[in-house]
Amino acid sequence: MKKAKWTGILLSTVLMSSLLLAACGSQQSSSAPAAGGQADSGKKDFTYAMSGVYKPFSFKENGNLTGFDVEIGQALAEKMGMNAVPITNPFETIIQGLDSKKYDSIIGSLTVTEERQKAVSFTNAYYRSGSQIFVQEGNTTIKSKEDLKGKKIGVVKASNYLDWAKKLTDEDKITTYDSDITALLDLPTGRLDAVITDQVVGLRFIKEGGGKVMDVGEPLSFDEQAIAVRKGDQESVDRINKALDEIIKDGTYEKISQKWFGRNILQKQ
């Protein structure tokens, strides 16, 4: 009886160990591939980062990451014969994540600036827009950038819009956000006098009935947004530029842009 008892215990232990090993193997295979890795399909991964909170460029819908930037990355990956792997990362550390090889590129509405060109290598522009001032509907005191002195301005952290806000008002009057949409939603509450953000983002917010908001004055700048890779990686720049040219020529870019904005946002303003 004792022998049968110990045999049963031994078999149970072996069975439990097998189940645990199987579970561990299952969890490991479902984890996201590392930057520069390779998917089960045999294709190399094209990892590209975005904030994930910048509607309509990248955002979560029903638990899935979607948006213009996501679809552009997928189209580029297809042209390059690669597996598209979009990754979210806070915008204020998105370049640091690229440097530390968490991902191989940034398709995250990153404006080309002289300062950023020192840190990353940029592709050709993949869309163009402008920095725009937005205020609460009915506001008659702010009509241009000259009226922003001493006013409370909301902007996204570590963005070029923050640079504009610092030029136009006092630093203690600036509130930074993770999302432009959250900032725009604060306008009707009176927490902010103005928001500086991408013209396309603000106009789509108004179109979708996001709140009683309006744009004022001329755009502060016309900006080019480009895809970033690690500094000096000319091979990736050339490969992505080639794929970008292909999706523009075959109409894929036009289709994606029309879907999200009702116009081609690569055209010069």
Automatic annotation (TrEMBL):
Subcellular location per the Swiss-Prot or TrEMBL entry: Cell envelope
Keyword DNA repair among UniProt keywords: no
Pfam families attached to this UniProt entry: SBP_bac_3 (PF00497)
UniProt KW keywords: Signal
Superkingdom: Bacteria
Record-annotated Solute-binding protein family 3/N-terminal domain positions: 45-264
GO cellular component, one term: cell envelope
Keyword Signal appears in the UniProt entry: yes
Range of residues in the leader sequence: 1-22
Record-stated family: Belongs to the bacterial solute-binding protein 3 family.
Protein name as annotated: ABC transporter substrate-binding protein
